[in-house]
Amino acid sequence: MQKRERFRRFIEYFTQHYPDPKTELNFGNPFELLVAVILSAQCTDKRINQISPALFARFPEPESLAAASVDEVFSYIRSVSYPNNKAKHLVGMANILLSKFGGEIPATVDELQTLPGVGRKTAHVILSVVYNEPTMAVDTHVFRVSHRIGLAPLTATTPLAVEKALMAHIPKQYVPKAHHWLILHGRYVCLARSPKCEICALREFCKYYEKLLVVSQ
DNA sequence: ATCCCGAGGG
DNA sequence: CCCTCTGGAT
After folding, report:
1. Every domain of chain A and the residues it spans
2. The CATH fold of domain A30-129
3. What range(s) does the HhH-GPD domain occupy (predicted)?
4. A200: annotated binding-site residue?
């Protein structure tokens, strides 16, 4: 199947099944989203949503988080992955947010990436969700699923390469949705270890299902 | 043993 | 490029 046809089928299928896809992280404002996305690295959204209510109640804005001790922040996030690193990142992030950006969430990739704990993926999530920009954040799900269903070539071995492949072929108006479609599909159908190919509507043009693809990431 | 909406440092 | 961080679910 041609590349163009794969993208067309992909968009057609998910437009019907997930008309309005969005993040499953709970948040009430851009600051809370930034905190939640930093915490979500190598951790399930479900777990973040379990600890975020108490965290947001104690640190509702950059000021309280910047003034907090790393130990106290740690006590709120001890059940997520890499709590030591993330506690330092959160306090550092809040301080930079206040000193460099007046407490506002930056709106460019370069500025966002100056914040501790914020890499390209997190920056693109913020740009997409907060500022409605057509950016493609490539996480573990996007990376894996894109390869399996042939939206990215196997030669795209880095998240940036996958990002470029997707951006080159997905119409701008579908980019934010496609980001969430790939995540939802990866989370609930196209699982890393034992993908549910028997219920997958995309298997007819899936390289993984054809066993032409063995790599994950 | 492997994976989860990665990032920082060497 | 590599390595480390490191809790909980499957």
Report:
1. 3-21+136-205, 30-129
2. Endonuclease III; domain 1 (1.10.340)
3. 39-188
4. yes
Å from the A155 CA to the B5 C1': 23
User: Under CATH, to which class is A3-21+136-205 assigned?
Assistant: mainly alpha
Handedness of CA A122, A125, A127, A131 (dihedral sign): negative
> What pTM value is reported for the model?
0.93
Contact (CB, 8 A) for A123 and A130: no
Q: Which of A139, A164, A172, A196 is catalytic?
A: A139
What is the C-alpha to C-alpha distance for residues A215 and A55, in angstroms, rounded to an integer?
37
> How far does the CA of A89 sit from the C1' of B4, in Å?
19
What is the distance in angstroms between the CA of the first residue and the CA of the last residue of chain A?
24
**pLDDT tens, position by position, A47-84:** 999 999 999 999 999 999 999 999 999 999 999 999 99
